[in-house]
Amino acid sequence: MSRLREQADAGDRDAVDELIQLAGELGDMAELRRLADAGYSDAADELVQLAEERGDLDELRRLADGGSSDAADLLIELGDLNDLRRLAAGGNSTAAEQLQELTDE
Q1: Distance between CA atoms of residues 102 and 59, nearest Å
Q2: 3-class SS shares of the chain: helix, strand, coil, % to 5
Q3: Statement: the pTM of the whole predicted model exceeds 0.85
Q4: Which domain of life does this protein belong to (predicted)?
């Protein structure tokens, strides 16, 4: 994996794609975070999927706070009031609507 990482860091897009796939298969959240932080949206998507599969709400929150609409959507679907409040306060209109529906009941 280190050789692949070196190639990816040198700008080899095929190596980046392979690295994202491998990191996803291995469940390597740290590598996926590194790639997502470097701007690779495929890594961010893989990270959201892996966090969802693992039920890792903290990671989903981190990703949502970083701008991932997919992570935010998953948190909204779960309907936790604290998450909805936090997302709504951050300007997420869907979270605000969901929060309003839940608190009106």
Answers
A1: 24
A2: 80, 0, 20
A3: no
A4: Bacteria
